[in-house]
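Quick one: sequence plus zinc ion SMILES, need structure tokens.
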Amino acid sequence: MYQHFPDVRAILHPHSLNATLISKCFDGAVTLENYELLKALPGIDTHECKVIIPIFENDQTISRLAACVSRYLDHNRGVYAYLIAGHGLYTWGASVQDSLRYLEALVFLFECELRLYRVNNP
Ligand SMILES: [Zn+2]
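Reply:
Sure thing.
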């Protein structure tokens, strides 16, 4: 992460309930779109946007998992976080305070998506 984002000084990796659950409900990615709270993420100043949170398969071989994430980051911009299936979330920022703000927003938005998922998949 530090190689991809030179301004990053804090990476958070919580095993939050919402992050773990949502990683099992969606294949490949979670799309967060038209939420006011997306403005908590850096460089976003309108709800009229789409943020894709990729989901990677869990892997006990960390070097292989890191290579998979690195390949994704090489080919995608506007990545604010990623999920590991059945495991948790990674997000990052220029400070612990920034990263905590992103984490709080993402966990809330995951809750929104999980509730919508339950409505759409009774
Ligand atoms: Zn972990």
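The mean pLDDT is 95. The chain has one domain: 10-117.
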